[in-house]
Every structure is written in C-alpha cells, then in structure tokens.
Amino acid sequence: MKAADRISRYSAQERANHWVVALLFVLAGASGLALFHPAFFFLSNFFGGGTWDRILHPFLGVLMFLSFLGLMVRFWSHNHYTPADREWLRRFRDVLNNREEGLDTGKYNAGQKTLFWVMVTTTILLLISGIIIWQPWFAPYFPIGLLRVAVVVHSLSAWVLIAGIFVHVYAAIWVKGTVRAMTRGDVSRAWAKKHHPAWYREISK
Amino acid sequence: MASQSLDITRRSATTTQPPNIRGDVPQVAKLIDISKCIGCKACQAACMEWNDYRDKVGTCNGTYNNPPDLDADQWTVMRFTEYEPEAGKLEWLIRKDGCMHCADPGCLKACPAPGAIVQYGNGIVDFHEEHCIGCGYCITGCPFNIPRLSKKDGKAYKCTLCSDRVAVGLEPACIKACPTGALVFGTKDDMTHHAEGRITDLKSRGYAQAALYDPPGVGGTHVMYVLPHGDKPEIYEGLPKDPHISAWVSVWKGVTKPILGLGLGVIALGGFIHYVTKGPNEADDEDAKEDEHEGR
Predict the structure, then answer these.
(1) What distance in Å separates the CA atoms of residue B27 and residue B29, rounded to the nearest whole number?
(2) What is the domain partition of chain A in residue ranges?
(3) What is the pLDDT of residue B295?
(4) Is the CB of B275 less than 8 angstroms away from the CB of A173?
(5) B198 shares a domain with B54
(6) DSSP secondary structure string, B42-102?
(7) Which residues of chain B make contact with A191, given a CB cutoff of 8 A?
(8) Per residue in B187-220, pLDDT tens?
C-alpha cells in the first residue's frame, strides 16, 4: 500500500497536544490514586514520597486541565450527537462483536463522543473541587462542610475519568490502525471506510 | 501501663492489623468539669510548656478568648460564653476546647498517609507528624473542627492527650496544672463514675439537666465534659449536640473506595477478556482486498 493512500486524521499539533494531556493524565492520575486508597499509596514513591505527592498532584492536575482545554477547543465541534449516533448506541452489542456494517459513523462514533463529554465534565469538576481542597493555598478559605463534599466529588470524578480512559485506551488497542492515527497522524482508507464512513465521504469530496 | 504506646488499635491508611498483642489496655479519659472551671488558662500555659510550642502573640478580639482559636501552635483554648438562662440572669460558661479523642476518630478515617494518625490501645488518638503529608484530610474528617495545619511545616497538629506522659504513668500536663480540680484524668470507667457524683451534686444545686458529655455518635470520647446544661451542649460555644463522622466522609472513606478500586481492575480485565474472545477489529484485510481488486 502506498503512503499516498493514507488519510490524515490528526495534525502534528493535535497529536502533540493529545500526548501532553496523556502524560499529565498519567502523572496526575497516579499521584492522585496514591491518596485515593492505601492500596495505591506506593505510587507516591514515584513522586518522591507522600508529601511531594501531595505538593505536586494539584499542579499536575491544573496543567492537565489547561492542556486538555486545547483538545476541548480543537474537538468540540466534532462531538455533537447526530441521528447516526443513536443508531450506533442502539447497535452497541453489534459494535462490541465487531459487526459495525451499516453504521454511518462520522469522524467520531457515539462512544467516542460520550467519552469526550465525560472528559469535559470530569476535568471541570476535578478542577473546581481540586481547587477547593488544595492545601495550603485555597482550602482554608472554604467551610469544612464544602471541603467534605468537594473531596467526594473529586474522587468520584477522578474514578469516572480513569475508568473512561481505560475504555479509551482499550478501544485504541482493539480497533487496529487507530493508535497510528495519534502517533503518526494518518489512517488507511479501509480503516476510515469501515469505522467512520460518513467522515470518509466528507473528506473524499 | 508500661509500653502501652506500642499497643496500636488503629493506624491511618493501613488495611492490616497494627501491633496490638495485649488488647486489654485500660481505657483512659480526661474529664472536664465545666462547673468547676474558673477560666484561669493554667491548662493552656501548661500545655504550651510541656509540648514546647509558642503561638505568635495575637490581638484581643474583645472577648476573653485568647488566643481566639486553636492553632498548630495552640492545642487547647478556653472558650468563654455569656449565657442568659432566663432574662436578668447571667452565666459565664467556660469550655476548655481541644481534641476529644473519639473512640471512632474521623481524622484517622480520613487520613491517606499510612501511620500519620494512630489510636493507641488506651484510646488516645495521636498524630505522628513525621508521616503527615499535609493534605488536610483530617480537618474534613473531624466532627469537632480540631486539627490545624501548621504554616511553618505544613503538618497537622492537635492535642496528644500528652501520650508521652501517659505512656510513662504521668497525667497530662493540663490536669497537673488545674488549680480547681475541674480537670481530672484516669481510666474511663473511673472518670465516668466520678462524673456521676458531680452530676448528682449539680442536680441538687438546681442544674436539673446536668449531664455527662460522652457522645455515642463517635463511639464515645476519651475527653468528656460534665455539662451543667447537659441538654444544650451547643450553648458551650457550639459543642455539637450529636457529633458523628459526616456522611460525606463515610461515603468517601467507607466501602466506596475498595469497590471503585476493584471496579478499575474489572474494567481492565474486561478489556483483556473482550480482546481474547471477540478479537481485534481489523480493517487492513479489506485494504489488501481492495488493493488486489484495483490491481495494485
């Protein structure tokens, strides 16, 4: 297959932005999980111990949010739901069984769009609740009752985000040819036709 | 009570049993008899002296509360309230505030740093600052608003009930300094018995509602009050009527987290099982077919 036959899916800037977010997600996620449950406390060793973990985590989180803002702006308009998405959700069982024939999916399928909105919602909740519980800079200015709610919102949002990213990573491994879209920027024609036919028609015009 | 400091009932962020082979260590308690307190603050001074901290000199806020609040450098304060039980009558209520040493400590439950908060076999809840990471979760866990983060070192501090003195058979510094017998210390059983006598006495003097404050919502406490107005603890500068660990903290630190942690494992395993049962979703075979078809 010739290189010219490949279709560009992500620009170099989009890829760079994605991987900055991904790296910060791993760092913020690991340093946060260390405080989530004793079973994960060993992760704080990667950050220089418990106190360093506590100091670094909020800064990593804020950096993740700021870099994710870039992805939010870039991909926002591609993630509005369409009637084709309803069909995709209806046939979710088929999709899981690798039977996606007849689905007229655009640049993103309903699963990807849902994940996008999950990430938008959870990162905003994480930012707000995280600032509220950020010691010693901001937490002293909020009432203790609010801190209690904020830590619950923060850990539940984080869990939903991490679970969502697990699905995101697995989907990229499962659907072959996808990882290359984010590492090299291009996909094969067959990949585009099979998984995102409506997008393929649009860019082939 | 030798080596009781090695008997640890609970240890923060630890899911296995801490060292605790004896198990029948006597429970201790401090009893604060509000009806005997004259507000001299000798206990405050003794606490500063024994524990060797010095809060910065503040400003008078128009009350006798001085310093006005607890701090990392101030583990106990007298809280003064002018209370009118009925018009024309005035009672000056003075409550020595500080850690209550809950049997079910919210601070320990909330703490994510292994070993930063321990509960000794004798009931004392103690912060081990060298393990503290400064996250402030103990502040969210405490139903009494006691722990304070230090601005000097970023660690949380509070009353230790002089665990170092108690471990070698001495009474806490505040008890030793109290000139009126408002503060007494001993086993929890003895202190409860002593309180009963005080309450009987108070009732005979017209305080019909006198009661012992040993709130069951936190499993009882190892610092107890004799309250002349036992039916209204909140008049003593907001002493909570029915303190308990906030439901938010219980949700946050209870069964939720192990279940969610397991959930992440299930999702990861689910992905793996899906891959080996359903297989990857490949488009490249069709690429090859197409290439053949188009004669390339």
Answers:
(1) 7
(2) 9-204
(3) 44
(4) yes
(5) yes
(6) HHHHHHHHHHT--PPP----SSS-SSSS-BTTBS-EEEEEEE-SSTT--EEEEEEES---B
(7) 283-284, 287
(8) 999 999 999 999 999 999 999 999 999 999 999 9
Q: Indicate yes or no: CB of B13 within 8 angstroms of CB of A38.
A: yes
**Does B115 lie in the same domain as B199?**
yes
Give the per-residue pLDDT at B3.
46
Residues B16, B161: one domain? yes
pLDDT for res B1: 36
Q: In this predicted complex, what is the ipTM?
A: 0.89
Q: Which domain holds residue B279?
A: 255-293
A31-76 confidence digits (pLDDT tens): 999 999 999 999 999 999 999 999 999 999 999 999 999 999 999 9
Q: Give residue B221's region: left, alpha or beta (phi > 0; psi -120 to 50).
A: beta
Query: Is A78 tagged catalytic?
Result: no
Let me know: does B131 contact B114? Beta carbons within 8 Å: yes
Q: Which CATH architecture has domain A9-204?
A: Up-down Bundle (1.20)
Condensed to tens digits (0 to 9), the pLDDT of residues B81-137 reads 999 988 999 999 999 999 999 999 999 999 999 999 999 999 999 999 999 999 999
Interface test with A, best of B132, B138, B140, B269 (most A CBs within 10 A): B140
Same domain, yes or no: B144 and B269: no
Among A18, A57, A168, A196, the active-site one is A168
Task: Kindly list the residues from chain A whose CB atom is less than 8 angstroms away from the CB atom of residue B291.
Answer: 1
CB contacts of A56 in chain B (<8 Å) are none
